[in-house]
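[step 3/7] inverse_fold.run input=structure_tokens len=219
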């Protein structure tokens, strides 16, 4: 479906997830014309996060990720307004946390969460940029509320998430960079490549751009 959006001024962006992809995306958002960020994550910093989540240091272990990330980024974007939500998104709180935003950036790492976020954004009429990683594979998609549903079907155990401890920081940074490009385009009045998915296999150096429901890399 053709979408002709207008530029977004004084943008309010919700970022769901302050893990590897979120850590890569947040500094890039701070350089875009974003007036306010709502950062949502119920997790705390663990020592195993430090090699792959560069917003955190040893002194942050045990702290809420949303608080530590905000503290690091406050000097980079001193005029930006922040709302930190130290809780996990669920069916009960998603409409409240996302409903007032101009755009949502989904940095979660399981399909069930992505489906919930898409449903919530669609119901509220909010554009969504979703990015995830699985091993060395990156998936980034922009979904306009008028687009057909992207995350469909029943979830399998393999789709519910992956062990992020084995994902290199370079892979989550790649996902974050692709998300930031789409968000920048949407803020400028483009469609952010609505309805298409970039599917990148960093290990095999393969890149596909597909439309409609996501499909795996060919064998």
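[step 3/7] decode complete -> sequence:
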């Amino acid at each position: 479906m053709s979408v002709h959006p207008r530029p977004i001024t004084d943008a309010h962006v919700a970022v769901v997830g302050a893990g590897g992809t979120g850590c890569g995306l947040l500094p890039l958002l701070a350089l875009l014309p974003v007036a306010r960020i709502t950062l949502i994550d119920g997790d705390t910093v663990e020592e195993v996060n430090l090699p792959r989540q560069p917003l955190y240091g040893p002194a942050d272990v045990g702290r809420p990720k949303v608080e530590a990330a905000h503290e690091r980024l406050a000097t980079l974007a001193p005029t930006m307004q922040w709302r930190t939500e130290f809780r996990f998104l669920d069916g009960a709180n998603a409409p409240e946390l996302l409903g007032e935003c101009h755009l949502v950036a989904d940095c979660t790492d399981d399909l069930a969460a992505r489906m919930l976020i898409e449903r919530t954004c669609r119901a509220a009429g909010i554009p969504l940029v979703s990015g995830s990683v699985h091993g060395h594979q990156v998936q980034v998609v922009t979904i306009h509320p008028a687009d057909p549903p992207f995350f469909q079907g029943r979830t399998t155990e393999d789709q519910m998430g992956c062990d992020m401890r084995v994902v290199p920081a370079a892979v989550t940074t790649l996902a974050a960079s692709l998300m930031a490009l789409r968000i920048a385009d949407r803020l400028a009045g483009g469609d952010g490549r609505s309805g298409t998915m970039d599917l990148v296999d960093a290990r095999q150096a393969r890149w596909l751009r597909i439309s409609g429901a996501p499909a795996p890399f060919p064998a």
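[step 4/7] annotate
The longest helix spans residues 169-187.
Residues 153-161, 213-219 have pLDDT under 50 and may be disordered.
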